[in-house]
What we know:
By secondary structure, the chain is mostly beta strands. The protein has one domain: YVTN repeat-like/Quinoprotein amine dehydrogenase (Methylamine Dehydrogenase, Chain H), CATH 2.130.10. 5% of the residues lie in helices and 49% in strands. The chain contains one helix and 29 strands. It has one helix at 3-20, and strands spanning 37-38, 41-45, 53-59, 65-72, 94-97, 102-107, 112-120, 122-130, 136-142, 145-150, 156-163, 166-176, 193-196, 202-206, 213-218, 230-233, 239-244, 249-254, 259-265, 271-278, 284-290, 293-298, 303-310, 315-323, 328-333, 339-344, 349-355, 361-368, 378-380. Strands 1, 5, 6, 7 and 8 form a five-stranded mixed sheet that branches. A four-stranded antiparallel sheet has the order 4-3-2-29, with no helix packed on it. It has a four-stranded antiparallel sheet with strand order 9-10-11-12.
Amino acid sequence: MHRITRLALACATALAAVGSVAPSATAAVPRDDSHHGGHHAVFVQTDNPAGNQIVAYRRADDGTLTQDGRYDTGGLGGVLDGSVADHLASQGSLTYDEQHGLLYAVNAGSNTVTVFAVDGDRLERRQVVGSGGRFPVSVAVHGDVVYVLNALDGGSIQGYTVQQGRLHTQDGWNRCLGLDPNATPQFTNTPGQVGFVSDGSQLVVTTKANGNNLDVFRLDHDGAPADTPVVTNLPGAVPFGFVPDGRHGIFLAEAGPNALATLTIHPDGTATQDAFAATGQAATCWVVAVRDLLYASNAGSSTLSGFRTADHGRRLTALGNTPTDPGTVDAAVSANGHFLYAQTGVNGIVDEFAVNDDGSLTALGSQAVPDGVGGEGIVAF
């Protein structure tokens, strides 16, 4: 079936899903919209199908963590067919909004997104809002604009604005991706991440094996997306997670060749590859950045691969691999850049590391995540 036809069918399904989602609900709503933001904390999402939670950990000065609370999202986690360590098969399912001091968590099994206010290592639930589609897996924020990526029914994005500590759904900001909704297995054939280029002018979506594409939506001054994306095909790449590089670039984890790549996103939405470096590992799907360092998570090898970037991302120098607990997935770095925390999904564990000046990682210990097997989504301060 041509993608244009699939797009029309997927849009009809997604819009029907928008209509079927219950109205926004709020819980523990504060009387004012003040916030303090996160500090000395790590938040981890369980993605538990019986009831999604965010587990809070307090970070000590030496980087070690102590569990400090569990917060219900008011929604359910979800599991994509074929997944083991990574039930959402995505990056960015738990996202911090520094400007507004908010934390956004997807509830894939409920087709909703939860908004928390963040105060140090504590959370206060403010809102649960419909995701505008089925099975939300990734959230991105830039300024007052937020986008959610839905994985099923061919994939879709839904846009919101942030006002007074809450998300306000923009009805005209829903776009369907037109991916093949019947491609299997689900965990490699659903979109992987939504994210902004650094200046906020474009929105990028990875499609993984369902097309091997980067979809780039031009955004207007208000944040509304173009009607259709500009599509760049990356044959065999299985584009998955990414982080920004400069104003108009990304560092991209490619699960097909198990590699990191540097890509420039041009003003017209097309993308070109500037650098490429293989990890030599299996299931390279996620990437996190700190200073001029990148760390890719290899779920199949249970390792983190380190790289140093130079020449505006056009050079990637391998720094070696660091073992983790089984099933390395999402990772996050503390605000001071000294510590890295990696989710490992097979047993639901967060591994703690110190980031050394030479880019090597020193293991500090690990923390079990209650009901966190297969969970994805981590934020660090």
